[in-house]
């Protein structure tokens, strides 16, 4: 009865969903790929996975794709005769994942309309489906189960903000959760929460956070100089990178930079909005501030931007390089109530990080960063300025924070091997 009602409602949602995706794609200047989202994959693409068992990993967007990278590497190493397919929901996620050398094919995840799901599964015929973090689609999991395809939830998490909503609609989500073969959760709290929503307790296991298994290393001076040349940055000037920023944060960053320049003229700001399509909006803020700035896409080979300038990054997929060339990094989505972003990325390059009070989506990581003294949490824009001044003045201190971040990465890995042990029981 549940699926009859769900699919009846889905029929009426087809038009609104299509209109939303058309609007989203056109407004961001990207193709909507509606044919693929309705389950029709071109034959020339399917040739990339033909005649081999397929491991299908789904990662919604950029963050999930990056978190899945250690798992993808291990899957490629352990199962060289399998084809690896990655699906994404967002265009930015697709853009990042399609560059991963470990995969054979990258597609858009189908809409959870029954014909689209059935057609996609019939074309791909996966040996296993791995879904990153918390994506619960009733038709997809049900149709996979009907075909005896194991579906695993990897790196699962239930944030504080989303838990109450999941719990309120547990009557809806529990149907799909019952169909997962295993649910691998980041923490014991996540395991408790997914069980409360309706997952079978005997299929839930705490495996740790895959994000701790991202490659980490100390960046040497020669590599920093090379990267700074690529991005036209001054060679010997402290670089402050504000990454994954959201609306409402960029103005605080601009104000902080202007204040910092009064006491530290030799400083450079790299500003990276979470969504590059917002670069026009951020450009207006920079123009109003009077700060000179250049967009990443307008840089010319061989040029060098002067200190006091802002590099506005309007591309995707370059974040790790930008952290590597930085001296200090602010991780956005945290001065506004978005829930924060991944602090492990700057830590993995030995860079001292700053973040705001809103870290509900990354509470465990934020607590660990503070425990290891790998970064500083600020409550207000003024505290952000003061923390930046502290780190800019004391080079020894910021280097110590960077080393502590690398130590944190060293001592908290292992989630990939725990996931692989479970995956191995189904392949």
Domains (count):
2
Q: Going across the major beta sheet, what is the strand order?
A: 3-2-1-4-5-6-7
Distance between the termini: 33 Å
Instruction: Please name the CATH architecture of the largest domain.
Output: 3-Layer(aba) Sandwich
SSE-based structural type: alpha/beta
Give an overview in words.
There is one protein chain. The protein is built from 19 helices and 14 strands. The strands form two sheets. It has a seven-stranded parallel beta sheet with strand order 3-2-1-4-5-6-7, sandwiched between helices. Strands 10-11-9-8-12-13-14 form a seven-stranded parallel beta sheet, with helices on both faces. The longest helix has 26 residues, at 2-27. The mean pLDDT is 93. The protein folds into two domains: 2-214 and 413-423, 3-Layer(aba) Sandwich (Rossmann fold), CATH 3.40.50.11720; 221-411, Glycogen Phosphorylase B (Rossmann fold, 3-Layer(aba) Sandwich). The protein has helices at 2-27, 34-37, 43-46, 62-78, 91-97, 114-124, 138-146, 160-168, 170-177, 188-197, 221-230, 250-263, 279-289, 319-324, 344-347, 363-371, 381-393, 395-411, 415-423; strands spanning 54-58, 83-88, 105-108, 128-132, 151-156, 182-185, 204-206, 239-245, 268-273, 293-295, 310-312, 328-331, 352-355, 375-377. By secondary structure, it is an alpha/beta fold. The chain is globular, with a radius of gyration of 22 Å.
């Amino acid at each position: 009865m549940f699926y009859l009602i769900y699919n009846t409602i889905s029929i009426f949602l087809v038009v609104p969903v299509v209109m939303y995706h058309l609007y989203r794609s056109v407004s961001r200047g990207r193709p909507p790929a509606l044919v693929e989202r309705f389950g029709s994959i071109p034959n020339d693409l399917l040739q990339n996975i033909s005649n081999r068992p397929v491991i299908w990993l789904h990662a919604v967007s950029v963050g999930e794709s990056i978190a899945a990278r250690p798992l993808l590497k291990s899957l490629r190493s352990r199962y060289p005769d399998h084809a690896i397919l990655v699906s994404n929901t967002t265009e930015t996620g697709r853009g990042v994942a399609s560059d991963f050398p470990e995969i054979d094919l990258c597609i858009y995840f189908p809409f959870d309309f029954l014909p689209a799901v059935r057609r996609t599964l019939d074309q791909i015929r996966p040996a296993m489906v791995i879904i990153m973090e918390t994506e619960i689609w009733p038709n997809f999991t049900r149709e996979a189960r009907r075909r005896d395809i194991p579906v695993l939830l990897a790196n699962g998490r239930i944030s504080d903000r989303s838990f109450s909503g999941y719990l309120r609609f547990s009557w809806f989500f529990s149907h799909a959760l019952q169909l997962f073969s295993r649910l691998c959760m980041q923490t014991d709290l996540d395991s408790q929460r997914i069980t409360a929503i309706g997952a079978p307790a005997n299929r839930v296991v705490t495996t740790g956070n895959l994000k701790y298994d991202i490659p980490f290393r100390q960046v040497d001076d020669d590599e920093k100089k090379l990267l700074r040349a690529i991005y036209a940055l001054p060679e010997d000037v402290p670089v402050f990178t504000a990454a994954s920023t959201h609306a409402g944060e960029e103005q605080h960053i601009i104000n902080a930079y202007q204040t910092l320049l009064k006491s530290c003229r030799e400083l450079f700001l790299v500003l990276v909005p979470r969504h590059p399509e917002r670069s026009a909006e951020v450009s207006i803020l920079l123009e109003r501030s009077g700060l000179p700035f250049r967009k990443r896409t307008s840089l010319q080979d061989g040029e060098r931007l002067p200190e006091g300038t802002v590099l506005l990054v309007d591309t995707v997929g370059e974040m790790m390089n930008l952290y590597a060339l930085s001296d200090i990094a602010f991780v956005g989505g945290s001065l506004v109530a978005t829930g924060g972003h991944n602090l492990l990325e700057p830590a993995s390059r030995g860079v001292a990080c700053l973040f705001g009070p809103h870290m509900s989506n990354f509470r465990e990581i934020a607590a660990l960063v503070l425990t290891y003294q790998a970064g500083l949490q600020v409550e207000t824009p003024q505290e952000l300025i003061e923390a930046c001044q502290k780190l800019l003045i004391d080079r020894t201190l910021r280097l110590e924070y960077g080393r502590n971040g690398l130590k944190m990465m060293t001592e908290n890995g292992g989630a990939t091997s725990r996931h692989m042990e479970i995956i191995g029981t189904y392949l």
